[in-house]
Specification:
7-stranded mixed sheet, 12 strands, single chain, 111 residues
Amino acid sequence: ALPVAWLRQVKPTVQVRSGDKSWQNARERTRLRFGDHVRAGQNGKTVIQFNNGTYFVLRSGTQMQLVSPATSNRPLVVRVFGALSEVFVHARGGVEIRTAAGTAAVRGTQY
């Protein structure tokens, strides 16, 4: 599968897990695909930059998964784990964020 996003501004500790593989320490420009998980440990922080211009700021104690949309015209879906998670979203196009507490959708501007 082709990468749909990459990491930038990686501050330790940030880790990535693809499929059934174990967690790996992330680096600047780590490529992400649908199904991948990203987590920021204590004092960790990163920016997840998507190909469509949307970006997420993932902060300490937060884990998220990139979920493949049901069809190509559906919004980008991100699943966030953890009760004390903190994610900032700058959307370009539709984005759906799923948590245990509920789902938030952002209808962004397409460029």
